[in-house]
Write the structure tokens for this entry.
Amino acid sequence: MGGALLQATGSVTSVLRRTFQILSGVGEKTEQKLWQRGITTWSDLREAGDDRLPGRVQRRREAHEDQLAMAEHHLADDHTAPFDRWLPDREIWRILQEAGDRVMYLDIETTGLSYPEGRATVVGAHTDAEGTQLLVRGQDLSSRAVQDLIDDAACLVTFNGRRFDVPWLEREFDVSVDVPNVDLMYAFRRLDITGGLKSIEKQLGLDRGEEIDDVGGYEAVKLWRRWERGNHDALERLLTYNEADVVNMQPLADIAYERLKAEVYDPHEPDDPQAQQAEIPVEDAG
């Protein structure tokens, strides 16, 4: 991910490796109990005595150890697709740190609100590894080019992309999207920050610059129409607008990740993990 987040291979354990909701029968409350008892990583869970585990975790211990081994195997192979199935939708954001420089910030421009009445005109993508790539209709935008983009990603970050961008690409270009998609619109709603992408940028102090500050979705359609009539400056402005969308998603994702971590994990982290070694009643149902 962006520079604001340490990579999982560094000194800070990623939230994903502190996540127990990927395990069968473990929901939010059981996960919080584990954290509060000082079991804050997958390694902690493997090493914990039964007396420290909630009842439902004790009873499924063997299955959970197999599931953790599988999760670690997939991460070692940079294979993140299974986590899209294992994590609840509202917790997909936890994959971000593990995806590292293969997080892809994705946004599309179209000539309408639905396909096939409209068509995609620009597909923009930004990663730390490859920088910004803008595919343009009539030039280099094709099914193969879009699939190649997605295949290089370990995780997508979009804004309203779960309902709009990704389904559109799947329908128009017949591509397969099997990587996690962190939709910032829902992430920020969970943080009580609402509005469109540009509105949220302004709320959080991000500036697009005067050149495209007045461009929105409707204006983007008009810019494409002007380009079709031969106005080359219109295409340049449209591409600048799309590039701002994907580039600005990176600091937004960093902000969302850190704030969600502070809300979801930090309040349940024990002040003194050693103090959690006390015996926990076996009858605790989790």
User: Anything to note?
Assistant: The radius of gyration is 21 Å. The beta strands are 103-110, 120-127, 131-136, 155-158, 181-183.
